[in-house]
Input
Amino acid sequence: MTKTLNVAMIGGGFMGKAHAMAYAAMPMFFWPAPAIPRRKTVVDLTDAAAETARDRFGFDEASSDWKATVNRADIDIVDICTPNNSHAEIAIEALKAGKHVICEKPLARTLEESVAMVEAARASKSVTMVAFNYRRTPAVALAKKFIEDGKIGDVINFRGTYLQDWSADPNGPLSWRFQKDIAGSGAVGDIGTHVVDMAHYLVGPIDTVQAITSTYVKTRPIQQGGVDKLGASEKSADSERAEVDVDDEVMSMVRFKSGAVGSIEATRNAWGRNNFITLEIHGTKGSILFNYERRDELQVMFADDPGDARGFRTIYTGPAHPYGEGLWPIPALGIGYGETKIIECFDFCKAIVEGTQPSPNFEEALLTEKVADALLRSGETHAWEQV
Output
């Protein structure tokens, strides 16, 4: 009989919606499922908000008391979908209670909080995961396979970007993502860590960085009401404004421990860019190119191709590729953000059943937080900083 895992999800906002959908859909895609995640209880800031999330996301129960919930004997998984300032407190409490924990990225606001979370994970027997879901895009996993198989030889160069424009308008509201005491950092932690995670996944650990960090919009309108809104909604030029104290952009040169070099760029102020995550990787025997806005495609060039066939070719991911057996039966039929969350849920549940640690777990995600810390330090010192 397939094992059931009772899930307590903390946070009923946008990420809660994505995670709840994944719990419901994972067994539909990956059957027989490693386990059946049961949406047991959802926690939000108020009883009313939690009841709304329960009805909307299909949970059995609702609560506004996260601490009592994570200590319940009938809860197997604690899923943290809250702003960054509560990640450490919830995760450490859940790990002490013996729960498996999946936490939205970044791991925490600061390196110190991240270390405390890792120490709690080491002291437990729990499975942990940080939700860097973009690495689970089948085309990115295929790139990983090609690299591991030696198709492009030794990696010598990595270029990664994550460009968005949702905060380019200075009249977008002061989301918690623009407040250091809640978010920890701006573009670095919010989206730059995704690029760092994929760099680690595909190339290996980053050793040193030299970064420029910039804040373009110094103040934003204070949000009205209790629901956090991203910069793309409810513009208000006339509202009272408050300070933005995090970075809007980071650009950095990086050196990997392997000897490879590269660059990372992340900004939320690039007009015309929606979710523009790109990876270009050059090796001694070929190259790989990926653009998340065309996420079913992977472009590859192999140096041993005959002279009359040189150039990038496009592979459309499908059943023959990573995770293809559980997704759609026709290449290029189209996957979306939701499917990456479904795959993430599958890998997490599989690890729990098998008693293994998935990737990235808290320990691996700490390496990404160390890079983020070095990027922020370099942004201040304008010097190369050791990770």
Q: What stands out?
A: The chain has a mean pLDDT of 96. Residues 362-381 form the longest helix (20 residues). The chain has two domains: 4-133, 137-386. The first strand starts at residue 4 and ends at 10.
